[in-house]
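In the laboratory, one determines a bound structure by crystallizing the protein with its ligand and collecting diffraction data. In a computational setting the workflow is compressed into a single prediction: the sequence and the ligand go in, and a structural description comes out. We illustrate the idea with adenosine-5'-diphosphate.
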Amino acid sequence: MNGGAALPRRFLRNRAAALGSLVLLAVVAVALLADVIAPRDPLRMVARPELWPFTDPRFPLGTDALGRDIMAIIVHGARTAIGIGVLAAAISTTVGIAVGAAAGYFRGWIDDLLMRFTEVLQTIPNLVIVLALVAVVGPDIVYVVLAIGLVSWTSVARMVRGEFLALREREFVLACRAAGMGDLRIMLREILPNALPPVIVYASFLVSAAILFEAALAFLGLSDPSIASWGRLIGEGRQTLRTSWFIAAIPGVAIVLTVLALNLVGDGLNDALNPRLRDQ
Amino acid sequence: MAEAPLVEAAGLAVRYGVGADAVTAVAGVDLAIARGEVLGLVGESGCGKSTLGRAILRLVPVHGGRVRFDGTDITDLPERALRPLRPRMQIVFQDPFAALNPRKTVGQAVGDPLHAVLGLDRTMAEMKVAALLARVGLLPEHAERLPHEFSGGQRQRIGIARALALDPDFIVCDEPVSALDVSVRAQVLNLLADIRAERGLAMLFISHDLSVVEHIADRVAVMYLGRIVESGPARDLFAGPRHPYTRALVASVPRIGATDDTAVPIEGDPPSPRSVPAGCRFRSRCPRALPCCAAAEPPLAVDGAGRLLACFNP
Ligand SMILES: Nc1ncnc2c1ncn2[C@@H]1O[C@H](COP(=O)(O)OP(=O)(O)O)[C@@H](O)[C@H]1O
Ligand SMILES: [Mg+2]
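The predicted complex, in structure-token form:
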């Protein structure tokens, strides 16, 4: 039941998912081409402050309260958002898969220990943990990514554990055990590929959650100040909300569009993958 | 039986779940299978046949009793120590759809154990896969395909090829044709019988269908609610069943059995393994039950005709 070509077709037939992918592709392209689109340091003052959009063709989106090019901040902020989102989601997916796979496959005390730890972690609000971590180790972008990644794996772990618990009893897995294959090989080659579809769906939500997380940190002034960030621009735009509301509004639109696109893609993936999962 | 049996179970017990939810699926089973011998295991669905077969292969945890394979007690062997023995005992499953990984090609399903376990290189493994597929009646190019491209009967052939790949001495065939269309059952059964003869394989051949077992088994064991109630040579057992349960089973397939006017067909479903009757576990459905049947569980013992039988009033 693997019908390789059917999946993308089913995914793209879903209009919302197709639109989401289009927006997402655009954001990723902008992120990748940031240095071409806006070659100069986006955090440098380039013009008079609070220049309104569409008034100066050199700064199509205007300037912020410090006279920095908003267009450049948005473009480089896309790189920050996508980079942080993808890396943090990769970290939480990897940790979640490792924890969930070990718990579901080995069961017994390994399962008890890992799931107890997961539950404890889940009861503390993620933002509290991340704020504490960043407060201790400093607002370096590497730590921000690590902190976001390391708080978001618990749901992945529970999801993967459930899949492993069910799949480990399936006959094709028993056949591999009966053949004398090693546990690691069975986990990685036999069970994991079958456990992955829901994780892939969830990963797209993790990316958007991580983007919102970084934005929240930056809004609070707790993310890396040396990097262009949508959240930081919103936070700084607060001060001039009455006179120049566009400074906060433009990055706000960027975040909403990106997160919305990611969620549409996730929903589309879910719909495309799930009927098959259920009818197996 | 002069030679030591290849497979031996003594007092084997398997429980699922814990506490009040616990189900004793196998409740103390003794059996022995000689090299090259096919033991048929029959009984109604849910009586513990699959569990027994899997417990013998150490695929489900064993809670009591012993399992020996070729003289080695494997009951408590750690997985690592068991691994070298595993290739010698294989299994063919009932459900040909669940038996194959939907994301692996047939070549991988059959060939992976060859290099992962036996250490064959790719070319050797591919050659062996081609030979195995040919043996079970498939084509070499089928190795490139995914399981969903095959019918149930073809998948079962793939499962048989996979079980044969490691050159086992013993195969548990867990209702290998029950899920197949009637039209292909005979072909798959004949394939198993031929392979068994070629290779001198020992088998535990599980089925709820006596006419299937009759085809292939040398000896037959009848299971009821987790225990063996009767066992003996296939021909004798079908010609003259002694346990009331066996008699009812045989009488329900008139083609096999001698006409047995005294056999009463049993009705209804067996009691749940959660609430096994005290004394003889067949008592609640038995037409010949006596007061003494409630007092104690009849042991499986050799009767006058050289048959193993667990009944106070055969
Ligand atoms: N994984 C399991 N967990 C709990 N109970 C099980 C499990 N597998 C089987 N059982 C129960 O054990 C009993 C025997 O099942 P099984 O060995 O599959 O019987 P059979 O193969 O003869 O149909 C049944 O009551 C069944 O419900
Ligand atoms: Mg069964």
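The interface with chain B takes residues 1-3, 170-172, 174-183, 185, 189-190, 193-194, 280 of chain A (CB under 8 Å). Keep in mind that any predicted model is a hypothesis to be tested, not a measurement.
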